[in-house]
Specification:
alpha/beta; seven-stranded mixed beta sheet; 7 strands; 42% helix
Length: 218
């Protein structure tokens, strides 16, 4: 499915989010706070757009994704990033040694793994003690009237817009359904803590449409 949407993935995300994806990426970059020479694992990196801020900060970033189609577009596409070191990998069996990274981040990808808790534990395994985790994921708007409007957009407008701009519109029906079924902010924080991470906290972005969870490797 993700191979099929790779060609126009970044464009579609910008349109569907009304341009908010760029603001969310900046929030992730601030939370990761990558320093020159730091090693950052960017999981579910897709075409690598999410990895660019870390590279610009002077960090060594590894964009990793399960979809080889996404990685191919990121490496060789018209607007690709051939300078990045893309790696194909499964979030449940990461191809990296223990304590390989100073920070691990995943944006809008944790929702798509088949075992969330196992993926969080794998991220802890490859992060050094004291290292950081940053999870950026769709969540639950905190203001009830807005939540109603947002739910209507997800199940109505989002698939309709996707039919106009996406290379695989049916994938965005799955997207809407998976967002609606995702745990809320406190529930996700509890699962992160249960996977071996400490000091779990979160902040809401765009009224809670997205939540940014942060944690530390003990």
């Amino acid at each position: 499915m993700f191979d099929a949407v790779a060609a126009r993935y970044d464009l579609t995300n910008d349109v569907l989010s009304l341009g908010q994806t760029r603001l969310w990426r900046r929030a992730v970059a601030r939370a990761v706070d990558a320093q020159p020479g730091a090693r950052v694992l960017d999981l579910a990196a897709g075409t690598g757009s999410s990895s660019l801020p870390f590279a610009a900060a002077g960090a060594f970033v590894v964009p990793c994704d399960f979809s080889l189609g996404m990685l191919h577009v990121g490496k060789h596409g018209r607007h690709g990033h051939p300078e990045l070191s893309f790696v194909g990998g499964d979030a449940l069996r990461l191809p990296f040694a223990d304590a390989s990274f100073d920070a691990v981040t995943i944006s809008f990808g944790l929702r798509n793994v088949s075992d969330i808790d196992a993926a969080l534990a794998e991220m802890a395994r490859v992060t050094r003690h004291g290292g950081r985790l940053v999870v950026c994921e769709f969540s639950h708007p905190t203001w009830r009237p807005f939540r109603t409007v947002y739910s209507g957009y997800l199940m109505g407008a989002l698939p309709s817009v996707a039919r106009r701009v996406s290379s695989n519109p049916d994938a965005y029906i799955y997207l809407a359904e998976s967002i609606r079924a995702w745990p809320d902010q406190p529930a996700l924080a509890q699962r992160i803590g249960g996977a071996g991470w400490a000091d779990v906290a979160w902040s809401d972005l765009t009224y809670g449409i997205v939540a940014l969870h942060r944690a530390r490797r003990t």
